[in-house]
């Protein structure tokens, strides 16, 4: 290990001593060699460390439980590969398998209580208002749950005493592999979930002929599921979900509805092809004997068509995709899968210096993580988050839920829904900046559907135009308030989600998308608030009421209130997005004027008596409160209302973070890393990142702690990007200019490195290299030809660009 570090330091000094290379240019010049040298050094060091850098997770033993199994996914199909030698288990999901059925959650009695609830809140009788608001909750007040489908089980008689074991997940290829040796034979398996073919494929080989023998079966936790043979080479698992009552526990409560126990039908089919040997049905499954190799193809589907229609034919869907996949050689299936995945995964590369622990198995790296000993682990988790988003969110499918697409529990935590008061939004924070814009599409599609469903909720619960969605949604597009008022009476979740459509436009500049999809949704969301904002008596501000600061109230009080800071901040962003959209599209000038007038009357961000950013209209913050939610800091991140241009609010945000505590795990920790990065505090961001890795990462890299939720995986990926690149679009005398900040929060521990392919608002793609903690090279590719200002190394460079051109900027930034 000493030799690899010596190589790294020697090459780093050589690069640093070479001085500024290149000049502003529209071609790759000698400066690219500088990037290549740094990249080559980091790769060489990684190889010397005995690891695979930031692209492979590997283990020297099978998974002991679900949280050590390795995830694969096609967006629609997800699976957890355990890697056992004798009794392999591959647990799988299909993303549309949810409990329940088409259902209207709206409460026709809700609007009768709205006026009185507001009166009680403005009279300071918040607890009485909370009691009344139970009558405004949806019907029922519990939404449905994402479900597991089944297990593919493989039994290999006599393989329990294998040696030379290794299992891995190649993030670059999206292939999970297992290899081991037994009785002089090397056995290998690889599994992947193919987006092009829409199947899960498992390949089994040995380095001697005739050695592949195993029994295959399908099982399911779903009550009433049945298994049957389909000829000699396939078995079928099928069933239909029925009405159930949820037991006590997390998110407990009875699930009822008007779907009469006729829920979604589902089917999974596993087919086996062999080279040599035999395959036959028997014992409730399939038996393969004496094959040279075998290929298993698993397809699954449900009867879900839309949130209103579950009349699809899962059997026909499964047969169609399985027939198409079975007609292709395994090599072509694998090649098409790898090409599809690597097109997305390979867009961004991040190299950080390896350390003494970088060559160890991944679970050992995680368990024994110590700051400074394995900085490369942050790069691995960064790429793992990108991998998980690709695997769980592809065009044409559902968005990643609280567990992505991976769930083994009939009663998953929080029902594995879309919780939209932070968690779902965090899932998609890395989508644009980490160059996975296509993976953003399922969420944008969900927002479009929620806007349709939410119009009915707006009318039924508030008598308003536009659309609304509260803090949770399920596949049946429930938009009414659910759970308890303390959690559910928050009308701003849909507005926050709609801003993802605006962000997609800011990164891509796609005016057709803005015109046909984004602006109608944004405008409708704004209409709801024009109709429902009310004047609060003390400051005469326009506020939301009833509302809350998500899942949090002042000490000893209910969360129910009027005009929490987060709401006003979201509405400023929403109104601004609508106003700017109307100008870009040349439409709705009178509507924009109404929004501008309402925006002026929104409650401003305030600094409280202890120097903190106030969470509520009144100064009620407890400086000893360490609650995980920091909703009022939305204005800092993901919004950009608190910047270096507002130093007083920046200082208040810092105070709030100090009071709430920065060393948090799970999604609260991930949010804090982003917040600290936005403040430019790379050292503090790095401290929280290290705390997250040490306290919250499970053996397979999933975010853990008390419960598994995937949000922090995505939040950490976004945070690493935020430490390396930030961008915003600012007003200019001639219109707007893009500001791109290079290495805004680089920690000292990341002394040298390189990142390529990150995206900036305004249609830019950026590569950055640094050494000795200093920026050494930058490349900017302009898609839209917009002017931009680059900040880095204490310098500013104003750049006029042409569409499709590339610019080298290292010398200009170092002058």
Helices and strands in order:
Layout: H1 2-17, H2 30-48, E1 56-59, E2 70-73, E3 77-81, E4 87-94, H3 114-122, H4 126-133, E5 150-155, E6 163-170, E7 175-182, E8 185-194, E9 199-206, E10 212-219, E11 226-229, E12 234-240, E13 265-275, E14 278-282, E15 285-291, E16 293-302, H5 314-326, H6 330-345, E17 349-351, H7 362-367, H8 376-392, E18 418-419, H9 423-427, H10 430-433, H11 437-462, E19 472-473, H12 485-488, H13 493-508, H14 511-532, E20 534-535, E21 542-543, H15 565-585, H16 589-600, H17 647-660, H18 666-678, H19 682-696, H20 711-724, E22 725-732, E23 735-742, E24 753-760, E25 764-771, E26 774-782, E27 788-792, E28 795-799, E29 805-808, H21 810-814
Describe the structure.
Mean pLDDT is 91; it is low at 1-51 and 247-260. The chain is an alpha+beta fold and 815 residues long. Helix content is 34%, strand content 22%. The radius of gyration is 27 Å and the shape is globular.
Features:
alpha+beta, 7-stranded antiparallel beta sheet, disordered N terminus, 815 residues
């Amino acid at each position: 290990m000493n030799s690899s570090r010596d190589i790294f330091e020697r090459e780093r000094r050589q690069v640093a001593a070479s001085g500024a290379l290149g000049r502003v240019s529209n071609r790759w010049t000698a400066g690219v060699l500088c990037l290549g040298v740094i990249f080559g050094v980091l790769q060489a060091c990684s190889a010397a460390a005995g690891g695979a850098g930031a692209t492979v997770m590997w283990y020297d033993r099978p998974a002991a439980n679900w949280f050590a199994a390795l995830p694969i996914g096609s967006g629609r199909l997800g699976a957890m590969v355990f890697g056992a030698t004798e009794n392999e288990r591959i647990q799988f999901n299909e993303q549309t398998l949810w409990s329940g059925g088409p259902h209207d959650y709206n409460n026709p009695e809700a609007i009768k209580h709205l006026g009185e609830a507001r009166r009680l809140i403005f009279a300071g009788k918040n607890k009485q208002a909370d009691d009344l608001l139970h009558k405004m909750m949806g019907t029922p007040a519990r939404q449905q749950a994402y479900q597991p489908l089944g297990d593919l089980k493989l039994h290999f008689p006599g393989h329990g005493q294998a040696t030379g074991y290794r299992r891995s997940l190649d993030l670059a290829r999206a292939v999970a592999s297992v290899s081991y040796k037994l009785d002089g034979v090397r056995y290998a398996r690889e599994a992947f979930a193919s987006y092009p073919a829409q199947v899960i494929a498992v390949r089994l080989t040995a380095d001697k002929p005739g050695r592949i023998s195993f029994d295959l079966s399908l099982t399911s936790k779903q009550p009433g599921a049945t298994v049957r043979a389909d000829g000699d080479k396939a078995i079928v698992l099928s069933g239909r979900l029925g009405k159930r009552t949820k037991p006590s526990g997390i998110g407990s409560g009875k699930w009822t509805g008007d779907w009469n126990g006729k829920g979604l039908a589902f089917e999974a089919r596993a087919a086996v092809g062999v080279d040599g040997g035999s395959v036959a049905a028997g014992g409730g499954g399939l038996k393969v004997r004496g094959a040279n190799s075998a290929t298993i193809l698993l397809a699954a589907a449900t009867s879900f068509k839309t949130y209103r229609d579950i009349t699809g034919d899962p059997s026909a869907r499964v047969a169609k995709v399985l027939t198409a996949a079975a007609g292709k050689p395994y090599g072509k299936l694998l090649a098409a899968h790898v090409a599809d995945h690597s097109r997305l995964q390979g867009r961004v590369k991040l190299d950080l210096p390896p350390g003494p622990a970088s060559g160890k198995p991944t679970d050992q790296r995680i368990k024994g993580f110590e700051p400074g000993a394995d900085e490369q682990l942050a790069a691995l988790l960064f790429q793992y988050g990108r991998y998980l988003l690709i695997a769980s969110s592809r065009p044409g499918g559902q968005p990643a839920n609280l567990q992505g697409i991976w769930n083994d529990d009939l009663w998953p935590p929080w029902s594995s829904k879309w919780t939209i008061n932070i968690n779902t939004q965090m899932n998609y924070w890395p989508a644009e900046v980490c160059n996975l814009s296509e993976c953003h599409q399922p969420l944008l599609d969900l927002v479009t559907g929620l806007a349709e469903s939410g119009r009915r909720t707006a009318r039924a619960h508030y008598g308003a135009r536009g659309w609304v969605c509260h803090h949770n949604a399920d596949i049946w597009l429930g938009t009414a308030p659910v759970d308890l008022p303390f959690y559910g009476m928050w009308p701003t979740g849909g507005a926050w989600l709609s801003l993802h459509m605006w962000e997609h436009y800011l990164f891509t500049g796609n005016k057709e998308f803005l015109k046909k999809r984004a602006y109608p949704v944004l405008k409708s969301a704004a209409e709801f608030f024009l109709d429902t904002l009310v004047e609060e008596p003390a400051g005469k501000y326009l506020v939301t009421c009833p509302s809350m600061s998500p899942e949090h109230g002042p000490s000893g009080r209910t969360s129910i209130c009027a005009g929490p800071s987060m709401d006003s901040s979201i509405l400023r962003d929403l109104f601004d997005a609508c106003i700017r959209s109307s100008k870009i599209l040349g439409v709705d000038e009178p509507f924009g004027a109404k929004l501008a007038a309402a925006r002026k009357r929104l409650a401003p961000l305030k600094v409280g008596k202890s120097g903190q950013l106030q969470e509520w209209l009144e100064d009620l913050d407890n400086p000893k409160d360490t609650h995980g939610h920091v909703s009022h800091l939305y204005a800092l991140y993901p919004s950009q209302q608190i910047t270096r241009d507002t130093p007083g609010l920046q200082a208040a945000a810092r105070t709030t973070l100090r009071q709430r505590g920065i060393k948090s795990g799970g999604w609260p920790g991930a949010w804090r890393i982003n917040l600290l990065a936005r403040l430019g505090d790379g050292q503090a961001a790095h401290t929280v990142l290290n705390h997250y890795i040490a306290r919250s990462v499970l053996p397979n890299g999933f975010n853990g702690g008390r419960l598994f939720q995937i949000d922090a995986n995505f939040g950490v990926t976004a945070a690493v990007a935020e430490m390396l690149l930030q961008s915003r679009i600012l007003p200019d005398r001639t219109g707007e200019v893009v500001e791109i900040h290079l290495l805004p929060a680089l920690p000292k521990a990341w002394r040298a490195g390189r990142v390529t392919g990150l995206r900036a608002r305004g249609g830019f793609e950026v590569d950055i290299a640094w050494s000795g903690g200093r920026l050494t090279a930058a490349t900017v590719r302009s898609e839209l030809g917009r002017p931009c200002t680059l900040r880095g190394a204490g310098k500013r460079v104003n750049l006029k660009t042409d569409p499709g051109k590339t610019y080298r900027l290292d010398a200009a930034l170092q002058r």
